[in-house]
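ARCHIVE CARD
Drawer: 12
Card no.: 0347
Subject: one protein chain, sequence and derived structure
Cross-reference: see card 0346
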Amino acid sequence: MPTQKLTPPALIVLVLCLFTFAMSAVIHTTTFESLPHLEDEYAYLFQARTMARGDLVIDTPIPRRAFWQPFVIDRDGQRFGKYTPGWALLLAGGVAAGGGGAEWIVNALLSALTVAVVYQIGRALFSRDVGLIAAGLVAFSPAALLLNGTLMGHTAALCAGTLTLWAYLRFEAARAARGTRLFWAILCGLAAGLLIANRPLTALAFVLPVAFHAANRLFAQQSFADLRRFIGGHLVIAGLAGGLALLVPGYNIAATGDPTANLYTFVWSYDCVGFETCGRSGHTLEKAFRHTRFDLSLTAADLFGWQIGDLTDAARAHLLTESDTYPQVGFSWLLLPLGVALALRRRWWLGVVWLAGITAAVLYANMTNGGSLLTDPQFGWQWVIAAIAWTLLPLVLLRDRTAAWTWMLVTTIALLLIFQLTYWVGSQRYSTRYYFEGLAAAALLSAVPLAWLSQRSRRFASPILYGALIGVLLTSLTAYSLPRIDVLRGYNQITRAQIDAVESRRDGDSPVLVIVTGSDVRWRAFGALMALTNPYLDNDTVVAWDYSGGTNDTVRTQLLQRFADRQIIDMAAEGNGAWFLDDDDATASP
């Protein structure tokens, strides 16, 4: 049987996939030292570890407060994480496959898959050149490199959203050619369902355009047979997506008995989507616009790593502590509007009209009645709903396949921004991760003008263009991405130094119980050891907090009785600082 050789484009994509996989491993093990650094990651890891053993909830250990973890809830004698189960289920595969410690491989694999799928979308929708360039932009994106190396669920959400679009694109093409559609319908439904079970609000930005596009095409069917065939395939997609979406109420039932429960509010009562009652001091459209402006200032740099000047000390400090306007000017968005205009072709004016409408709506909200509308919860919802409708409307007018799919890509980006307006806080730690799932669409549209230039240049100019692009990607990697990501090394005071110090005190191979004593202690004081402690408290190193501060022996006695066969290592802590009691010059770490 003759063997097929890899074509040059396929080889390039393979190299990009291997690059993103390898960088996920490198960043996870170097910058993040194979440890979670955000509270969210601790909760995801907790959920993944219980799911790997077949449990959605577990019995609350006694004493309860001694084993407290961020965003893990204790209720009615049961313990569970606050997050929807989609990402934790995937992460559980890494926990089970590696026996613990191999969780990083899930995001690494998904990041590589995303690069490959982006290439396929670009090739099918525009051209091979668009696919290659977009795949390169995704692989080298600073935001992607950062999040791929963490235990956060955004890489999985990006992959699921991108797979949803690609599978539906192929499903639609197979339907038009009367080819086999079932595989693509199944893949689309599974991907959409996993996205809903992972990040429901983000999922709306992908599901709504696909559903609206499908509804628009429904009325174009020319016969009853075509209509029946059309509906049948879409029922498969909807059934699978809806079935996987039931993981969310199913998890809620296991945790609380209420399928509609918002588990976020079990940690913070104000942690919800909406205006007025959500947020620490209420949420308004005014705050939403301000958060969007702040976060887009960092997105402009983090999307592709294109910013003016080197990473300054002020920028480094901002990345660690601030969430307002990023102090340096980014221009990763520069090619995006040109790409939209070129891809829409003769319908380019739709993009201009849409942008003018959104701008006018923002100005109206800010200027009417002295800006008082911005604090009106009812108007906030009206504005968001109108913006969603305005964004979807062009899909009704676009019959050309390329133009319609171009607007679907635009819509996923725009709806991510619009839906995020309803959440009470922005996010700049771990990049602007609430916008991250728009990366694939942004890369594809940004690749269009570069591919257009390459295709219209002389033969000798095209290699120069690609050479320049490679140079830009490598420069952004070394001059921006790696230094920018490395700013997070030791973030939240999480390092392996604390683990190494415990290991240096261990007697032989005996299991260890580390007791941290202090009455006013933050999780950061012993976060590295907390990451080692599994939910069942049966691993080699367990950390427990004596929250009495040593004022009575009750908590310590309970711990010693429960872990009678373990070596005891004592630490003390105050605030975010912790130290070992056997140190001669024992002082709190900062």
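Annotation on reverse: Residues 495-580 form one domain. The radius of gyration is 25 Å.
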